[in-house]
Amino acid sequence: MNWLQRRVRPEQIRELSLLLLIVVAILFFGSLIDGYFTFRTFNRIASSVAIITVVAVGQTLVVLTRNIDLSVGSIVGFTAYFVGTLIAAHNEINPVLAVAIAIVLGAALGAVNGALVAWGRAPAVVVTLGTLAIYRGVLVDLSGAKTVTTDSLPQWLIDLPLLNAVPFGDLDIRAVFVFAVVIVLVFHVGAANLNFARRLYAIGSNPEAAQLIGLPTKAIVFFAFCVCGALSGLGGFMMLARFGNITVEAGRGLELSVVAAVVVGGVNIFGGSGTVAGAMLGAVLIGTLEQSLFRLGISEFWLDAVLGLLILLAVASDAVILQRLRALWARSELKILDEAPNERGAER
Amino acid sequence: MTGAAAMLRRWETAMLALLIAIIALNSLDSRYFLSVGNFVNLFQLSIEKSIVALTMTLVIIGGEIDLSVASVMGLAACVMAWTFHQGAPLPLAILLALAAGVLAGLNNAFWIAYVGLPSLAVTLAGLIGYRGVARILLEDRAIGGFPDWFNRLGQQPAIGPLTASIVIFFILFIFFAVVLHFSFLGRLIYVVGSNAQAARYSGVRVAVVKTDLFVSSALVAALAGVLYAARLGSVRGDMADGFELDIITAVLLGGVSIFGGKGTLAGVGLAILVILNLRNGMGLADITGNTQNYVIGGLLILSVLAPNVWEDIRNKWKGRET
Asked: What is the mean pLDDT of residues A237-255?
């Protein structure tokens, strides 16, 4: 047991079990649905998961600091609509510039949330509940009830979601999905290793203590909201590329799917623990269930009930099992400490 | 502590002043505004949200949150419609709907109070799950054709100009005001909301208090769902979708702290009146429902921001004097 405990953290066991659950789900659905193991299925799941994943990465950073951003759905809709309008009006715009505009627009909206939470000292739930209504409201007012339509968009944007990242053989993996995975990897490694990112965990574990040891807690919380906004902006761009037709309702209710993915992924809603990769696994599990139950011919009406149960089980197992595991790990660490002086005593 | 109490008292005064200002402006704007008919209409149009806001107040003061209320409203209405559609008499269907509410509340309470999971996560699961059960029952049908007495209950005046829903709102308001402010359980709710750990060490049965909170929240939500069905005359699976945000907004605007332990039912009552009159006044002034939404969103942020900004200014002022 000891070698295992030294190499694996309890959180990693949780992620592994989530991965196992995804594999079991895929095998289960594969045995029931004809032609399930195809790239078509994979791509259907992957492109629906990609958007949720990118936004969930940002949400994870915010939740780690013991805050929450309920306005992500509105930010996604806001950027999808306005970048869509911009591209429709200027078809010749540089694609990189268009993505950059989406990210900056999202980051600006996130900065408003962050400033109100960090320096206004207002609870994040309340602030983002308010900005959820405000961003959506401003969007509806400014849009004048017009929609962005696919035929007004340039060809590169329409082709983007179908773009193949592996252009040889039968392999067909969408670039959008690869892009989402790259973002997850970058943020996962960053959050685990960067000094700056470890502070997110420090603040979430104990905000007062983080303040007392001199961390710039306000700036860090502000930063987390900005990144969350920026990634939501990116999600908005991905939504524009995927659907082409964008109404003012785009992304409404997305915040619930994103928070669900984060919670299923084992990120503690009270901050301080959880990983970006976990949030992605949560999004993948939810996406797999969503698309597969639909394919199975089980009425789509069952989906929400299953999803609700899944979230509950994820949170419960997180609390009950993980707590036990942590206690087990902590006890064995104590044992190692206990043994150390004895060994020295034996030498003497 | 007296400072905090005075602050709270000031919050309700501020809401009252705002309410009077809005009513005065509105009555200048339109001469129909001050009529009894307008006020009843005003109240009636979102009476179900107002009813659920009462129990939400208790839940949030108790340091928790219930995101599942709108789904419980939908679930109860669907259970009622489904059993009625199967041929059961409507009173029995209504009882089953309320029972479904109690079950949903017990489920929330079990995970939160006895397993110790965060209410935000549990009731988020409830929000999705209970809505799912409602959808399983009705799929994409709409069930109507309820007896006349049921539709009259939701649409016609019952006592004087007041509909049954409004009467029920006032009865529940008085009931929960007494529970919260004049009963032992009410004091326990504040204690648990201020510091659940300390309450547990002092021998308060925290789990029982939390169970009371979540069961009454779900039961009242189920009742509101039935009343909503009576007002609309038909039931669909997506009924009351998204209501939880409006309900929580009203409670927080009423000066209830999201961290628990602070707030009054009177404040929430005033906040409900402010929101209704503001919406009505803006409607009379031809401002769209969408603009109304974000004015209220702004007001919500302002309500949590203003005390902090005020404190900062006062501290700076004091710093200059010394």
From this structure: 89
